[in-house]
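Exercise 4. Each item below gives a protein and its sequence. For each, produce the structure-token representation.

Item: Methylamine utilization protein MauD (Novosphingobium decolorationis).
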Amino acid sequence: MLLVTTALVLLWMLVIAMAFVILALARQIGVLHERLAPVGALATAQGAQAGEQAPVMPGHLLGGGTIEIGGALAAGSLRLLLFVAPSCPICKKLIPIALDVARDERVDLVFVGDEDPDEQRRMIERHGLAGQTFVNGPEVGMAFAVAKLPHAILLDDAGKVVARGLVNSREHLESLLVAHETGHSNVQSYLRASRAPALEAAE
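Answer:
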């Protein structure tokens, strides 16, 4: 009888120890999962940040005329500014992706450049961008403090910056829209907030 009781006590001690090990592993897996989570657009510290009003200015269209940048849009609308250049190899890959994302998500896509107009026109022809809104000139990039390309800035209908950052993939572009849907400035912030309760419970 004593042997049976001792065996049961040892068994329960083993079960309790395993429970602690499982809880510790769950916590570590959560931390590791966050570290390996999809990376969103690389945020920059310069220029208008998420939640701030975008600078309002006229953008000079490559085909003539102007468009207001940073102003109010129709209720519920979003505008994506994508800064590109013919000399940027990543931009060439990203342009068709941006067109797909804008179409799928019903976002007003505005290309912004600051290059020789003839070079820009050749890029437009090469990528089939005829009919797309294309602003060319240094003013917009300077106002938003865009230093590297490709750079994307998502604006809401009030002209506020929803999210911004360096982008080089569809995942990066979609992370800006995730920021709008979740109210977080970037996808990493959203993931941290969504996992906080689980990590606290694991502790």
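Check: The first strand starts at residue 57 and ends at 60.
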